[in-house]
Design goal:
Layout lengths: L2 E5 L5 H11 L5 E4 L1 H7 L2 H7 L5 E7 L3 H13 L4 E5 L4 H11 L4 E5 L7 H6 L5 H16 L3 E3 L5 H7 L4 E4 L18 H7 L3 E4 L1 H4 L4 H15 L1
Parallel strand pairs: 1-2, 1-8, 2-3, 3-4, 4-5, 5-6, 6-7, 7-8
Length: about 230
């Protein structure tokens, strides 16, 4: 069954903790991203993880291997179950990130941001477009020993073809009728389920709703019925 990870996109730790506490019984885990990490630091991961659900530290590490290894270890020590690192940093960097997690977690390699479309990809030199870049980065992630990758649900089939053992985490999830905001490759929860995502990351569609718990429950029930 595809898990739901709620993105706690806040700069205020109290707000993030409050939302996480409300949702802890109805979702699979939480994402702590750059906004909260830069506002609070790794202690944000520790505080959210204390609720007993896995935390996905979306740090998007991208630096020289030694720096990435040390940063990954800091997030692991704070309680992160997964840490993200850009696959574009290369196999050596990804392998260093993988080594930083030991037996206590795993690295999710970011293939290409869901704010990119084919035109954006071409503009930064990804000559094979989105799918070609996802395939290349998935192969690199597999070779480096990453636990999984982050990509749009639209490319899950590409990842499965290249590296079937990898877990696939899919951001860019919106409910039908929601604004896509700054995402270019958006799908609904049921589309992500049908694509075979292992986890889907949902933020504003839950956290900005009038009743986040009810919304999360309805998403979970619709996935259970369709799964």
């Amino acid at each position: 069954m595809t898990g739901v990870l709620v993105a706690l996109d806040y700069s205020d730790l109290a707000k993030a903790e409050s939302m996480a506490a409300r949702l802890a019984e109805v979702v699979s885990g939480f994402k702590v991203g750059l906004e909260l990490l830069t506002a609070v630091g790794p202690s944000a991961v520790e505080r959210i993880a204390s609720l007993g659900k896995p935390v996905f530290a979306d740090a998007k590490l991208h630096d020289i291997p030694t720096t990435v290894e040390r940063a990954g270890a800091n997030l692991r020590d704070a309680g992160a179950r997964w840490v993200t690192a850009h696959a574009g940093g290369g196999q050596e960097m990804l392998a260093a990130a993988v080594g930083s997690m030991g037996d206590n977690g795993g690295i999710l390699a970011v293939t290409i941001l869901t704010s990119f479309d084919d035109d954006t990809s071409l503009s930064v030199g990804f000559v094979d477009g989105v799918r070609g870049q996802v395939a290349r980065m998935a192969a690199l992630a597999g070779a480096a020993g990453a636990e999984g990758v982050v990509c749009s649900a639209l490319e899950v089939d590409t990842v499965r073809r290249v590296e079937p053992r990898l877990k696939v985490v899919t951001p860019g999830i919106r409910l039908a009728g929601d604004a896509s905001d700054d995402q270019a490759r958006v799908v609904t929860p049921l589309m992500a389920l049908a694509a075979g995502a292992d986890y889907m990351v949902i933020g504003r569609s839950i956290t900005a709703s009038n009743d986040p718990v009810t919304t999360a429950n309805e998403i979970r029930k619709s996935l259970d019925r369709s799964g």
